[in-house]
Amino acid sequence: MAELNSTFTTTTKDRRTKQDFLASRTFFVLTVFPVLLIVIITVALFLRAQPILSEYPLTDLLLGEIWKPNQGLFGFRPFILGTIWVTTVGVILSVPASILTSIYLAEYAHARTRAIAKPILDLLAAIPPVVYGVWGLLAVVPFVDDVLAPLAEGRLDSISIFSVTQPTGFGILAGGIVLAVMIAPLIISVTFEVLSTVPNDLRHASLGVGATQWQTIRTVVLPQTLPGIIAAVVLGASRALGETIAVLMVVGNVPKVPTSIFDTAYPLPALIANNYGEMMSIPLYDAALLGAALVLLVVILIFNILSTLVLQRMLRRK
Amino acid sequence: MKKKHFEQRHLVELFIKTIMRIALIIVASSLGLILWTIISRGLPSLTWDMVTQIPKGGYYMGKEGGILNAIIGSIYLASGGTLIAIILSLPIALYLQAYAQDSKWGDYVRLSLDVLWGIPSIVYGAFGFALMIMLGLRASLIAGIIALALVELPIMTRAMDEVIRRMPKDLEHAALALGSTKFEVALRVVTRQMLPGIITGILLAFGRGIGDAASVLFTAGYTDRIPTSLMNPTASLPLAVFFQLGSPYPEVRERGYAAALILTIIVLFVSFASRWLASRLSKYSVK
Amino acid sequence: MDAHIQVKNLNAYYGKQLALKDINIEIPKNQITVIMGPSGCGKTTLLKTFNRFFELTENTQLTGEVLVDGENIYNKDIDVTEVRKIVGLLAQRPSPLPMSIYDNVAYGMHIHHMRKNREDYKDGVKHYLEIAGLWEEVQNRLNEPATSLSIGQQQRLCLARGLAVEPEIILGDEPTSALDPISSQHIESRLLDLKKQYTTIIVTHTLRQAKRLADYVIFMYLGELIEAGPAKEIFSNPKHERTKQYLEGLF
Which residue from A5, B82, B107, C225 has the least number of CB within 10 angstroms? Predict the structure, then answer.
């Protein structure tokens, strides 16, 4: 009986160990998928963009000013610069408020304030891009047109990047404001995580000799977390680079190199989204648009990989 | 020991604290501004017809009809995308927890998931489009579902991973000590314990999926009919908003605002539901 | 007795839980006072109320008074940073700031603008490192990160950092519990040297350390102050049953 019993248990045990082994193998294979997917996306876009890349030198494409697909002219320069302008304005507007907010939440706020702030940030992050676009159209564009442009006019005319160049309100500033709000929750939550990696012992060591809270933050917390905060900003920037619908709805979409924040712009994602309909009807057009997606992807990959590596190291130390 | 109110560092402290509070108020009130804009402009044209009817003849010139096609389409797209994403992310999240908590491989997987998370949905759309050309597919429900599944996968997996990571470790060890294999631990204990995390991840990804426009733009197409097959093109709410806003007819644009309100309500509902469910479910698990 | 700190009707709460129950005590000047008791008795909590660190924990509440030199440090118009300058703290685990050895000691002096020029700061750093008994070991590596020091050295560095802002009172929250015996002895002998100039209050759960250091003893149990008095009396002739049991090692 005893023998029977032990045989019984070993077989179950074998079965279970086998099950464990099988499961771990299957699960492991699945984890290869995300790693592989990045490669597949890059390769697929590269293959589809190949025709135009073999036709024109890369520098002509990236630096060319003229976009006339009908005549075989594919200059990305206005779109690349448009992307950079909108993203830069968005990041500049978002970063101070976002970082100050997360420092406040991490260092000063009561648990009660944090409990109110968290769902608000979650909701801000949950609102779909197209809704941000509607808000931009209904509120931000008129605000730029009625308030900000008149404010700049006559006062900031001498500075070329603030000169009011067209009368609609659509443009880089409107796009930047919408982007600033869209990327704020991301920058805030990542910065918050980074700040909470600083052990309280360090804060207490500084407070213990009579430092004020801000002195403690400035001399102890921020120097320690600076790489992580920069990574948070870079993540926000790469989110802004790729934002499509919301920006497209307020930025004006004129393929011209911008020179002022009141100019219209035509960022890369908007270019792709606006023209997918015709892309099969003109030779090389689809290759050009998928090439645009590739450019976007490569830049964003670089940004993302660098910032994620920094964050992975910082957050693990916790 | 009296407070020296005018000492520089105390003034600085006060100043910094004040501008931080202002920053928080600006960020928080932007949510209010957005919601106010969407509600005040969307509510007037929100009618029962909007949510119960598909576009009729002349709808896009301001005549009768609704956007039921887009609502149903979005639900199909997001549900399908979420389902596929679950099939992939649940095992990945469990693997990361059970076998690769602090391993190099786990780090690579997490890194690539975070990087995937950062890839904009327009790129997923373009990728889906490239695939469709290669495979000779047309814009369809299934193509949209696949594109959305890719958008949702990293969001869902990382959300699950993060919540599961915060699970108390002693429970897991107790189960291991009782002689369970790691797989059994993963399945029984982790799944049950982590139900809140899994639900949060799923709903978060669903919410993202239903609101995403750029990925379905190329892949799902748009149609006035409710799809009856996976190969049909499918309308979606974000695109319904987007297209109607581009209309020259004010009535149609007004309906675009109403559609934006419907989308916002759905997304907020999903967000609240995940919060509520997560807090409810976590009552039943060991804290 | 010349009291440096007076505690009056002090109650402390974590959330709704009462952690200190109606504490009344006077702590003598320029002596070493040891607070002892089993873990969870509130001794660290009591210590933290002396430099207003208690309020750093969220959801806490305090009633009553703590007077330093006759002034209630919980008064509205009191500058909390000034309190913490006068009442220094040596934490349980050494917590060097993420900067050089030199900067660690100079940190507090800079914050309070206590010196006029570079040379003065240098002299100050040297002076306090000497007092902490660390100068010999680190004089040639002042610009190295403080984390490169051994744990025992780090704790002496923290002592130097605390002394550099010229406090009158030193709090020690089990300051040797993370250290090896030799480093512990270093710290203890420093504290004994310093007691003529500073009022020192040490929390400890090792009875032997209490006996080595204490001039005055406070015994706490479950948030209440059971007994307090000169070390000789308490150790040789405790009045309270609980104290007796504790000294006999019954819990």
Answer: A5
- The arithmetic mean of pLDDT across residues C34-45, rounded, is 90
Residue C16: give the domain boundaries: 3-96+167-247
Instruction: For C166-192, write each residue's pLDDT tens digit.
Output: 999 999 999 999 899 999 999 999 999
The domain that holds C47 is classified in CATH as 3.40.50.300
Contacts of A58 (CB under 8 A, 6+ apart): none
Residue A318 has what pLDDT? 47
Tell me, yes or no, whether C7 lies in a domain. yes
The CATH code for residues B49-282 is 1.10.3720.10
The confidence score (pLDDT) of residue B188 equals 66
Q: Is C172 on the interface with A (CB under 8 A)?
A: no
Nearest to A166 by CA among A274, A252, A80: A252
- B3 and C CB contact within 8 Å: yes
A3 falls in which pLDDT band (50, 70, 90)?
very low
CB B194: neighbour CB atoms within 10 A?
26
Question: For C93, which of A111, A201, A207 is closest by C-beta distance?
Answer: A201
- Separation of alpha carbons B38 and B80, rounded Å: 28
A219 inside 8 A of chain B by CB: no
Number of structural domains found in chain C: 1
Q: Is residue C113 part of a domain?
A: no
Q: Which two tokens stand for residue C80?
A: 């909390």
CA distance B10 to chain C (A): 9
With an 8 Å Cβ cutoff, is C11 touching chain A? no
- A2 pLDDT tier (thresholds 50, 70, 90): very low
- Please count the other Cβ atoms lying within 10 Å of the Cβ belonging to residue A207: 23
- Report the residue of chain B nearest C70, measured CA to CA: B1
Q: Decide if B2 and C77 are in contact by the 8 Å CB cutoff.
A: yes
Nearest to B21 by CA among A113, C58, A93: A113
DSSP assignment of A86-151 equals: HHHHHHHHHHHHHHHHHHIIIII--HHHHHHHHHHHHHHHHS-HHHHHHHIIIIIHHHIIIIIHHH
DSSP A243: -
Q: How many CB pairs under 8 A join A and B?
A: 266
Report residue C16: phi and psi, to 5°. -100, -5
A120 contacts B122? CB cut-off 8 A: no
Selection from A270, A151, A35 nearest residue B105 by Cα: A35
Give buried/exposed letters for A172-205 (b at 16+ CB in 10 A, else e): bbbbbbbbbbbbbbbbbbbbbbbbbbbeeebbbb
CA C178 to chain centre: 15
Q: Which two tokens stand for residue B51?
A: 């949510």
In this complex, is the C-beta atom of C158 within 8 Å of any C-beta atom belonging to chain B?
no
Kindly tell me if the per-residue pLDDT of C228 is higher than 80: yes
Q: ipTM of this model?
A: 0.92
Residue B275 has a pLDDT of 85
CB < 8 Å to B204, chain A: 126
Label each residue of chain C as H, E or C. Answer: CCEEEEEEEEEEEECCEEEEEEEEEEEECCCEEEEECCCCCCHHHHHHHHCCCHHHCCCEEEEEEEEECCEECCCCCECHHHHHHHEEEECCCCCCCCCEHHHHHHHHHHHCCCCCCHHHHHHHHHHHHHHCCCHHHHCCCCCCEHHHCCHHHHHHHHHHHHHCCCCCEEEEECCCCCCCHHHHHHHHHHHHHHCCCCEEEEECCCHHHHHHHCCEEEEEECCEEEEEEEHHHHHHCCCCHHHHHHHCCCC
CA distance A235 to A239: 6
C59: left (phi over 0), alpha (psi -120 to 50) or beta: left
Q: Domain for residue C225, yes or no?
A: yes
d(CA A96, CA B23): 8
Nearest Cα of chain B lies from the Cα of C82 at a distance, in angstroms, of 6
